[in-house]
Design goal:
heterodimer, A: 301 residues, alpha/beta, six-stranded mixed sheet, four-stranded antiparallel sheet, 35% helix, 21% strand, disordered N terminus, disordered C terminus, B: mainly alpha, MetI-like fold, 2 domains, 0% strand
Chain lengths: 301, 310
């Protein structure tokens, strides 16, 4: 599949004059890999999105649609084949160390206790140990981890490990927090509890978050705005603001955590149906075999 | 989750109750309500880990009992067989006779043991240094790996039995020729184990550290080196078990002191009991060295054993 010639640089939504530039702008980013058979695999095809300061945005898509690749590009771990990532108005700026990246696995170091793990990111950035430890301690209270500073990861439950990992990332995320299916590896009850917890932490700390997930409910419970991404090659198919769907005051919309009953509201249920329809239409396409090679997550390595 | 007064609180870290915070509805904080866990994994987490390590050591000792019992049975069988009238005591002495030689010659054996231990320490130290250096070099770049690895493997195909006399010729009857034999035997398992340990680092973890803005050196010190230690220790255990054999062999070929020299002398005078007494000393020393490395490993990597029990 050769897409080199026909990338459509879809014009990015114009920002009204006098309006602050978005915190993050992904502008016509595309990505392709050389496949093992010598052809090209297209992972991303002209992705445009933006995040405003303090916003919580979810990116929903089926597995293999390139959303993890997109997150790697935004984090600065991979360079896109084409297009631009603009952080705070600076195009192509070094984003490693500025953007907090939270993968699905907690990836705690088994030889360090919880506090030692939480400061790992700050330490890697050269923050003095004492300062890193006091900042992490303060965050431990907020994160419900007080008393577990000296506990080794092997003695912690999955939910607590994930919160330690979250603290580690939150401490280094100066501009933006990227969450790559952070609750995907947890059981349903722990996931629900951590979703509520994340919502509350976000509302309190005022971070800017981009959450990648394949769980529409998770997106609806946490986000202000939702992008739907579809595969082969990955691109943004739909964008919905919860404020447009729901006649509520801004304060009510920003309140977190949202109760589970939020999903039962007719407007939200309708929005969910719309999002799911877009996602499943993609899956229906997939059911008709085309024989075309597709990009997979594995290609990213 | 229930807490029983009969449960040893120090065992709490090794048990894994499901998330206590699931039930709590306080969104922020989500305090874990189990006081047992707070007490043991919190302030005293390290102490509990050490206590667990001690218990694990005791369990290991208990695990050795069958081996010791079998050894005793084999020695008894040997004693019975060698005491038969048709067996020549000059050819196969009884364990009791060997023991008597051990006691009678303890002064000489001890002096020779010190010589051999000294050679082992020097040779093993050299092997550790070169093993770590080669392991790090192999890991540093694919180019170095391709250049070094075949040479290192080739070095292991050289028959030491043919090389050892030449080493004596080149480096004399003293310490140097023995240390080189030991180092040649020992550096390879250490090199391979270290390189494999460094390579085994989780690529996702390295990506995460890169996202922090960490450079290669930082990732090496913070992620790859600590993560390589369990694998490295496996190689060191193998190497230390080989080291005594290397020392004895080096001395056997040409020396003026040491247990290998003692064995050679006794061999030439057909003092079978003396040979076997020295062999017993060598075996005991090898086991002791192996156990020492295992102990150091347990003390150095308490997290690794805690994780394995989990």
């Amino acid at each position: 599949m050769d897409i080199a010639g026909d990338v459509d640089p879809a014009p990015f939504a114009e920002i009204p004059p006098g309006y602050p530039p978005p915190l993050l702008r992904v502008d016509g980013v595309w990505m392709r890999y050389r496949s093992q058979r010598g052809g090209w695999l297209s992972a991303l095809d002209g992705v445009n999105l933006s995040l405003a300061e303090g916003e919580f945005v979810a990116l929903v898509g089926p597995s293999g649609c390139g959303k993890s690749t997109l997150l790697s590009i935004i984090a600065g771990l991979e360079a896109p084949t084409g297009g631009e990532v603009v952080l705070r108005g600076e195009p192509g700026v070094q984003r490693l160390g500025r953007v907090g990246y939270m993968p699905q696995r907690d990836l705690l170091l088994p030889w360090r206790d919880a506090l030692g793990n939480a400061i790992a990111g700050l330490e890697a950035q050269g923050t003095p140990r004492g300062e890193a430890r006091s900042r992490a301690r303060a965050l431990f209270a907020d994160f419900g981890l007080s008393g577990f500073e000296r506990a080794y990861p092997a003695t912690l439950s999955g939910g607590m490990r994930q919160r330690v990992a979250f603290a580690r990332t939150a401490l280094v995320a100066r501009d933006l927090l990227l969450l790559d299916e952070p609750f995907g590896a947890l059981d349903a009850l722990t996931r629900a509890s951590l979703q509520r917890w994340l919502g509350a932490v976000w509302a309190r700390l005022g971070m800017t978050c981009l959450l990648v997930t394949h769980d529409v409910d998770e997106a609806l419970l946490l986000a202000d705005r939702i992008y739907v991404m579809t595969a082969r090659p990955g691109h943004i198919r739909m964008e919905r603001r919860l404020a447009d769907a729901l006649p509520l005051a801004d304060d009510a919309l920003r309140a977190r955590p949202r109760p589970q009953s939020f999903l039962m509201r007719p407007e939200i249920a309708a929005l969910k149906a719309e999002l799911l329809a877009t996602l499943t239409s993609e899956l229906a396409d997939e059911a008709t075999p085309t024989g075309a090679p597709t990009a997979t997550k594995g290609g990213a390595r | 989750m229930t807490t029983s007064p009969f449960v040893d609180a120090s065992q709490a870290p090794t048990s894994f109750p499901s998330d206590a915070h699931v039930a709590t509805d306080t969104p922020l904080g989500a305090p874990d309500s189990d006081p047992t866990r707070t007490r043991t994994t919190g302030v005293q987490g390290r102490a509990a880990l050490w206590a667990a390590t001690t218990r694990a050591t005791l369990r290991t000792l208990a695990a050795w009992l069958p081996a010791l019992a079998l050894l005793a049975a084999l020695i008894a069988l040997w004693q019975w067989y060698a005491s038969q009238p048709q067996i020549d005591a000059e050819i196969l002495p009884t364990p009791l006779a060997i023991w008597r030689v051990l006691v009678a010659q303890r002064g000489i054996l001890w002096a020779n043991t010190l010589v051999t231990l000294n050679e082992t320490a020097v040779g093993f130290g050299a092997a550790l240094a070169t093993g770590l250096a080669f392991g790090a070099l192999i890991d540093a770049s694919p180019w170095l790996r391709r250049a070094l690895y075949p040479l290192l493997v080739t070095s292991q195909t050289i028959p030491i039995i043919a090389l050892a006399p030449l080493l004596v010729l080149w480096f004399g009857f003293g310490l140097t020729s023995k240390a080189i034999v030991i180092a040649l035997v020992c550096f390879f398992p250490i090199t391979v184990a270290f390189a494999d340990g460094l390579r085994s680092a989780d690529p996702d973890l390295i990506r995460l550290y890169r996202s922090f803005g960490a450079g290669r050196l930082r990732i090496f010190w913070s992620v790859r080196l600590p993560g390589s230690l369990p694998t490295l220790f496996s190689g060191v255990r193998i190497a230390v078990a080989y080291s005594m054999i290397g020392a004895i062999f080096g001395e056997y070929v040409g020396a003026v002191a040491g247990l290998g020299y003692y064995i050679e002398l006794k061999q030439h005078s057909f003092a079978t009991a003396g040979v076997l007494a020295a062999i017993a000393v060598v075996a005991a020393l090898s086991v002791a060295l192996f156990a020492l490395v295992a102990l150091i490993e347990r003390l150095a990597l308490p997290w690794y054993y805690a994780q394995r029990r989990a």
